[in-house]
Design brief:
There is one protein chain. The protein has one domain. It is 26% helix and 28% strand. Strand 1 and strand 2 form a beta hairpin. The chain is globular and about 40 Å long.
């Protein structure tokens, strides 16, 4: 059972989030945030199309850009992860159900909808789950699979 102190510690937990201005990721910015701070940023970053939004990863990256495209967001440039991000675009799990699933599992996370989200029509959403500490990249798929188990395998690994 969580005590108030544990809940307060979780609420204050900071983790690194890397932001890229777009999918080409020729530059990056790293911020140390709490889930609440990240939620506030997501809330005010409103665009009509997903392609206009900045990309975020719960990973730290180096400075080795891919040859030709100069992209910093690559597996070869990733150094460590600070959490996992998964999305649901298939529409088989509603956003409301996703919130209920995570509440029932008592897992603190950030769930938010995609710009094209339409309740009952286009159930597209994303889930952000920070790690307690920096974690080796080799654990990424295992951690995504654990949360994906709660959703019957309906999440996409980002």
């Amino acid at each position: 059972m969580n005590t108030n102190k544990q809940q307060e510690d979780i609420a204050q937990h900071r983790f690194a989030v890397t932001f890229f201005p777009n999918k080409f990721a020729t530059s990056l910015e790293v911020l140390d945030l709490t889930l609440e701070e990240l939620a506030e940023m997501v809330k005010v970053e409103d665009q009509p199309d997903k392609s206009l939004l900045p990309w975020l990863k719960l990973m730290l990256f180096g400075d080795k850009a891919t040859p030709g495209t100069n992209c910093l967001r690559s597996n070869k440039n990733a150094e460590v992860m600070t959490g996992v991000v998964a999305e649901h675009d298939a529409g088989t799990v509603s956003f409301i159900d996703a919130v209920a699933i995570m509440q029932a599992a008592a897992i603190r996370c950030l769930l938010y909808t995609s710009p094209s989200f339409r309740p009952g029509e286009k159930e597209k959403w994303r889930i952000v789950l920070p790690c307690e500490f920096e974690t080796p990249l080799g654990q990424h798929d295992r951690l995504v699979a654990r949360v994906n188990g709660l959703f019957g395998g309906e999440l996409e690994n980002t």
